[in-house]
Amino acid sequence: MKSSTVIAGCMNWGQWGANFNTQQYLSQIKKSLEIGINTFDHADIYGHYTTEEEFGNALKLEPSLRDKMQIITKCGICMVTPNRPLHQIKSYNTSKTHILASVEKSLENFHTDYIDLLLIHRPDPLMNPHEIAEAFSVLKQSGKVRQFGVSNFTVSQFSVLHNIFPLTVNQVELSIIHTRPFYDGITDQCIDLNVVPQAWSPMGAGKIHLDAEDERSRRIISMANILGDKYNASFDQILIAWLLKHPSGIAPVLGTTKIERLQAALDSHSIELTNEEWHMLLRASNGFDVP
Ligand SMILES: NC(=O)c1ccc[n+]([C@@H]2O[C@H](COP(=O)([O-])OP(=O)(O)OC[C@H]3O[C@@H](n4cnc5c(N)ncnc54)[C@H](OP(=O)(O)O)[C@@H]3O)[C@@H](O)[C@H]2O)c1
Question: Which CATH architecture has domain 7-167?
Answer without folding.
Answer: Alpha-Beta Barrel (3.20)
